[in-house]
Amino acid sequence: MRVLLVEDDEHVADALTAALRQYGHDIVTAPRAAEALANLDGCELVLLDLGLPDLDGVEVCKRMRSRSAVPIIVLTARADEIDKVLGLQAGADDYVIKPYSVHELRARMEAVLRRTCRCGVGSHDHDSSCTPEQRDLINVGPLSLDLRSRSVTLNGKPLQLTRKEFELLAMLAEEPGAVHTREDIISRVWDENWFGSTRTLDVHIGTLRRKLGSYDWIETQRGVGFRLGSPSAL
Ligand code: CA
Q1: Cα 52 to ligand 1 centroid, rounded to whole Å
Q2: Average pLDDT, rounded, for the chain
Q3: CB within 5 A of ion ligand 1: which residues?
Q4: How far apart are CA 102 and CA 91, in angstroms?
Q5: Mean pLDDT value of segment 48-67
Q6: Which of 18, 109, 214, 227 has a CA positioned 20 to 30 A from the CA of residue 142?
């Protein structure tokens, strides 16, 4: 995959380039916004540092989004900027807070690519006829997820989910009916290197079921994991 890495810190850029090349990615680096915008065409994913010397990263993100539906993952130490970046205006697909591990970044990259372009059923094709809006919407019966604004509605009413709850639900909703193992869920929603108790997953499943108003939305496959169900009493 051709990845555009926008990072002005040479040491970070070199280390990340070396690490991602090991996984077979073709990395194009840009130390400033000007090079980033000039090299956008043909890239399949953008990793964008927000702190750039020539232009604010949020503005770079907006300009990229106005030209392309390419998935953008923001790399930032500025946690206070996240809402602005993920909002409809700037339109990033996800973010990773510095300092991050390469494992965490790769998990985010894979997750973003899995859920881009949902109008090409079950494929990763970047169909040029696919609008950003189609790309980022998942509808399962009365449940609707907008991956771009990270919002969820059920029967048209908004649900207030935490970030982890949203990611958990998005993972299940991407493949309704498919069983996801506890390990897969933890590695994607938390981190591949996460060694905490799996009790955390059960707690999140519990709060999500409560917010969805039915136990049946998330079915437990005993000894295996979970899948998105279909409540009979909708
Ligand atoms: Ca920087």
Answers
A1: 5
A2: 83
A3: 8, 49, 51
A4: 23
A5: 92
A6: 109
Mean pLDDT on 121-128: 39
C-alpha of residue 34 to centroid of ligand 1, in Å? 14
Domain topology for 2-115: Rossmann fold (3.40.50)
The CA 21 to ligand 1 mean position distance, Å, reads 21
Distance (Å, whole) CA 116 – CA 148: 10
Centroid of ligand 1 to alpha carbon of 109 (angstroms): 20
Expressed in angstroms and rounded, the spacing between residue 96 Cα and the centre of ligand 1 is 14
Say yes or no to pLDDT of 110 above 60: yes
User: 65 CA distance to ligand 1 centroid (A)?
Assistant: 20
pLDDT reported for residue 11: 92
Tell me the mean pLDDT in the region 146-171. 88
Single out the residue of 86, 15, 28, 99 nearest to residue 57, CA to CA: 86
Q: What single letter denotes the amino acid at residue 122?
A: G
In the reported structure, the alpha carbon of residue 100 is separated from the centroid of ligand 1 by a whole-number distance in angstroms of 14
Q: 51 CA to middle of ligand 1, Å?
A: 4
pLDDT at 232: 62
**Euclidean distance between CA atoms 67 and 176, whole angstroms:** 32
User: How far, in Å, from the CA of 189 to the mean position of ligand 1?
Assistant: 26
- Is the confidence at residue 29, as pLDDT, over 80? yes
Count Cα neighbours of 22 within 13 Å in the Cβ-side half-sphere.
Answer: 8
Contact between 90 and 45 under an 8 Å Cβ cutoff? The reply is no
**pLDDT of amino acid 94:** 86
- CATH architecture type of domain 132-233: Orthogonal Bundle (1.10)
Mean pLDDT across the stretch 77-82? Answer: 78
